[in-house]
Amino acid sequence: MDTLQLGGIEIAVTRKDVKHVHLSVHPPEGRVTLVAPTQSRLEVLRAYAITRLSWIRKQQAAFRSQARETPRRHVTRESHFLWGRRYLLDVQYVDAKPCVRQDHRRITLSVRPGSDETKRAAVLHEWHKAQLHGVLPGLIRTWEARLGVTVRAYYLQCMKTRWGSCNYARRHIRLNTELVKKPRHLLEYVLVHEMAHLIAPTHDERFIAVLDEHFPRWREARAELNALPIAG
């Protein structure tokens, strides 16, 4: 993989068996990638990227101006989101195994006395992962049937620069645990986006056609996701 440096912007260049050049700016941090036909010369790709420099900067500025959540301290009466809905956190210190409970108004985090912020955050993060594990297998099975693909494994990870990723060769999907805070249909959008890469590895015309056919509201979902606050 090559890298272009243009005016302080780093562009990761990947050459693949595609017909056209595809330049993308990825949320939430504005990472830039360029996928080009196998025989493309780097100086030609640099010239192309220069013509798109103002567009790249505009996209990055939009992502960087996106609202960010204030850092969470995991204390009582702090606001936390689950599936797009706001809850108040109630932290209880009890001499028992840590756990998390949820009702219609609050999320109750029970931890052992003396648990610091790192421990409280870790317990809640594991609970978030459990919520995702509760819905993802069914969603994956549904979309495997619709798309005619197989996901061999999926992984959950707190990621700073992307909502998801796909390993085409291994047929693995990786999803950002922050998605548990967003409305469920946005989790589904990111999942379908990554599963579509099992058909079309790059963001080419075939990939767009897959999304247009199977998830026609994907552009609206992408815009909604990019407009929501991201982790600070």
Order of helices and strands: EEEEHHEEEEHEEEHHH
Which runs of at least 5 residues are low in confidence (pLDDT < 50)? none
The overall strand count is 11
Q: Describe the sheet with the most strands.
A: 4 strands, mixed
Overall pLDDT level: 91
What class do helices, strands and sheet pairing give? Answer: alpha/beta
Q: In which order are the strands of the major sheet placed?
A: 1-2-4-3
End-to-end separation: 30 Å
Strand content: 25-35%
Indicate the percent of residues in helices.
Answer: 25-40%
What spatial form do the alpha-carbon principal axes imply?
globular
Describe the structure.
The chain is α/β, with parallel strands linked by helices and 232 residues long. The protein is built from six helices and eleven strands. The strands form three sheets. Strands 1-2-4-3 form a four-stranded mixed β-sheet, covered by helices on one side. A four-stranded mixed β-sheet has the order 5-6-8-7, covered by helices on one side. A three-stranded mixed β-sheet has the order 9-11-10, covered by helices on one side. Strand 10 (164-167) and strand 11 form a beta hairpin. The chain is globular. It starts with a strand and ends in a 5-residue tail after the last helix. 21% of the residues are buried.
